Write a sequence for this structure.
């Protein structure tokens, strides 16, 4: 790595975070049988181990990028890593199914924080003509990680038990955090407002969260069931209120800059 350019080093480092977040979308799938064996009375709750992660991740992405621009991308990336690691530790030591669901939400929040920050850290390190290649590598790491999750998870569960699908994240998080402290440069969007629109953030997180909930539960509920239609309507109203609030902002530059 001594001969690597600075851009290649930053890309490799941030790709570790993207790899972990993408891997955890699918790595736990093969551990479901072990979860059921651990908590046989909570089979229905255990299905939320997958759904809660996807819902929280999708909802968090919309606001995380804006916050990283305002308060610092390096800070966001490293903070996201630590939150993701905390969630992984809590998942591994979960005493109950509902505890693991909550821990998965914490994991997802950390992943949502670090993902947009990681790409924002990579792009300035490359010349304009090389950025498309860097983005391609960054995206490929995520795709390959998500696709390889079941295979990696199967090996870990069979060899070390279900706890290992979460504990495997810890050394990678620590390694990326220590190197990131020295390697990464802090950057932010100087035009981004430093204030946080908590009401707008709440609207968009709830709106996207409910919409994602409807999608991930569609097989069980049905696309046109009363429950799905009601959740879709509420999501539509929340997102509509969010967009309306942005368009009526007193500062034109703030419109849609929130995300």
């Amino acid at each position: 790595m001594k001969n690597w350019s600075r851009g290649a080093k930053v890309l490799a480092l941030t790709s570790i975070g993207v790899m972990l977040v993408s891997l955890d979308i699918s790595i736990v799938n093969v551990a479901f049988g072990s979860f059921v064996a651990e908590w046989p009375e909570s089979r229905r709750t255990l299905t939320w181990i997958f759904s809660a992660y996807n819902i929280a991740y999708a909802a968090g992405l919309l606001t995380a990028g804006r916050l990283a621009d305002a308060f610092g991308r390096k800070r966001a990336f490293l903070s996201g890593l630590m939150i993701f690691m905390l969630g992984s530790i809590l998942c591994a030591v979960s005493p109950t199914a509902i505890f693991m669901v909550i821990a998965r939400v914490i994991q997802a929040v950390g992943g949502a924080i670090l993902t947009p920050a990681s790409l924002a850290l990579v792009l300035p390190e490359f010349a304009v003509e090389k950025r498309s290649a860097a983005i391609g590598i960054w995206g490929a790491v995520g795709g390959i990680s998500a696709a390889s999750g079941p295979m990696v998870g199967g090996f870990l569960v069979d060899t070390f038990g279900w706890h290992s699908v979460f504990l495997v994240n810890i050394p990678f998080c620590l390694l990326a955090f220590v190197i990131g402290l020295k390697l990464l440069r802090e950057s932010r969007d100087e035009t981004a407002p430093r204030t946080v629109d908590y009401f707008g953030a709440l609207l968009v997180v709830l709106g996207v969260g409910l919409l994602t909930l409807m999608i991930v539960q569609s097989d069980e509920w049905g696309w046109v069931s009363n429950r799905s239609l009601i959740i879709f309507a509420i999501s539509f109203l929340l997102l509509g209120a969010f967009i309306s609030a942005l368009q009526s902002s007193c500062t034109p530059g703030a419109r849609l800059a929130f995300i």
In short: Residues 131-160 form the longest helix (30 residues).
